[in-house]
Amino acid sequence: MKRHDDGTIDVCTGVVKPEWIDINGHMNVAYYVLAFDLAVDSLWSHFGITEEHIATTSGSTFAVESHITYKRELCVDEPYRVSAQILAYDAKRVHQFQRMYHAEENYLAATAEWMNLYVDLDTRRVANWPEKILANFADFVRTQGDATVPFEVGKQMRIAHPIYALERK
To answer: Helix, strand or coil for residue 153?
Structure first.
């Protein structure tokens, strides 16, 4: 996995498939989520959360929240790469961030922010990360250097000057 100056590592590459194209002639939003999810699987494998780990420990991860931002289009047959970084983790959770780039032109196409939980699949309850996984997280974040929180993290969706807006109570 290639490491970048911003502390991220490339975790996945691919090419936009014809069946991923929508009526607007670009990659449909659902397939951005799929590409990001495949990149999550690749990152998990890097940490040791593999099919073998899941089969032998009955421990896996569930996504409990995600936020996608769309920056620029990707079109059919265009190559992409996804990089990842860990923003935070504790005994049961990991907060991670991904960037999807056009693999040849290097423009930022989209970002994904995720909150994932470690889960005991036998009980379907949140559980503590195994020590080996926690150690792998620690090793990974040490290599992130002076990485900073990306602009898109925690971004709230809103219209600056709406004609109409519901108010929170």
So the answer is: coil
Q: How far apart are CA 99 and CA 97, in angstroms?
A: 7
CA proximity to 29, closest of 68, 78, 84: 68
H or E element that contains 33: helix 29-47
Query: What is the DSSP-derived secondary structure letter of residue 168?
Result: P
Euclidean distance between CA atoms 46 and 96, whole angstroms: 14
User: DSSP of 42-65, one letter per residue?
Assistant: HHHHHHT--HHHHHHH-EEEEEEE
Helix (H), strand (E) at residue 100: strand 93-102
No. of helices (H) and no. of strands (E), the chain: 3, 6
Distance CA 150, CA 148 (A): 6
Q: Look at the block and give the residue holding tokens 């470690």.
A: 118
Give me the amino acid identity at 162. Answer: P
Return the number of other C-beta atoms located less than 10 Å from residue 65's C-beta: 10
Task: Read off the tokens for 17.
Answer: 């498939």
Least confident of 13-27, 38-52, 55-69, 140-154: 140-154
pTM for this entry: 0.92
CA–CA distance, 27 with 78 (Å, rounded to integer): 10
Q: What DSSP designation does 71 have?
A: -
